[in-house]
Specification:
The chain is α/β, with parallel strands linked by helices. The protein is built from nine helices and eight strands. Strands 7-6-5-4-3-2-1-8 form an eight-stranded parallel sheet. Helix 2 links the parallel strand 1 and strand 2. The longest helix has 18 residues. It is globular.
Length: about 230
């Protein structure tokens, strides 16, 4: 089932990209594997997936240990507490959910300890939802400046989570607004590259791709409903 699901999603990604006049290889699939056991991740890797997104540090550490023989690129996509930054820096290639000056400073400090430059995305709360993390759009420039002042942190793009909706078209303006922000600030601050847009999940990733997504975070459509 996982293998067939992945094939179907890849075909949908390809079709969506081509319809938007984009190259399908511009869009990478991040398999959201939170709560999924290691054997199901192994199945997904066997079907060709390489990038897996986790929400919880301890769960991710356990899985990374159990799957250390596999060529997996781990991304952190959940809300990151400052006191967990050291674990995130040691394990994850990309942290999608950075949203404060304090967190940037802590990531920089921990990356310095291990001799790493940590790639991050700034999470933007486009819709201004109280229940969602992320900076307000008008606070983004200041946070980008802060990140640029920390040599062990490299901003490579932006991330957002739209309000829940059964209708993908309803959230199109959120995706479009993130793309607009990336275009506005790209190249404005030295050392800041906003080429990545992490947006779109199982129910709306095709709309996100049409608006410029480069990373789509898909869990349910790959693994099925979580218990």
């Amino acid at each position: 089932m996982i293998t067939q699901n992945i094939a179907s999603i890849r075909e949908r990604i390809k079709r969506s990209a081509l319809l938007a006049g984009r190259r399908p290889e511009e869009v990478r699939l991040v398999a959201v594997s939170k709560t999924m056991p290691a054997d199901r991740i192994r199945e997904a890797v066997a079907a060709g997936l390489r990038i897996f997104g986790e929400n919880y540090i301890q769960e991710a550490r356990d899985k990374a240990s159990a799957l250390s023989d596999l060529p997996i690129e781990w991304h952190f996509i959940g809300h990151l507490q400052t006191n967990k930054a050291k674990y995130a820096v040691r394990q994850f290639t990309l942290i999608h959910s950075v949203d404060s000056e304090r967190l940037i400073a802590e990531i920089d400090r921990e990356a310095q300890k291990v001799g790493k430059i940590q790639d991050i995305l700034i999470q933007v709360n486009i819709a201004g939802e109280d229940t969602k993390s992320g900076v307000e759009p008008d606070e983004l420039y200041t946070l980008l400046e802060t990140a640029a002042a920390h040599p062990r942190v490299r901003v490579v793009g932006l991330m957002t989570m739209p309000p829940y909706s059964e209708e993908p078209e309803v959230v199109r303006p959120v995706f479009r607004a993130l793309k607009t922000l990336a275009e506005r600030y790209a190249g404005v601050i030295p050392g800041t590259d906003l080429r990545e847009l992490s947006m779109g999940m199982s129910g709306d990733f095709e709309v996100a791709i049409s608006e410029g997504a480069t990373l789509v975070r898909i869990g349910t459509a790959i693994f099925g409903e979580r218990s």
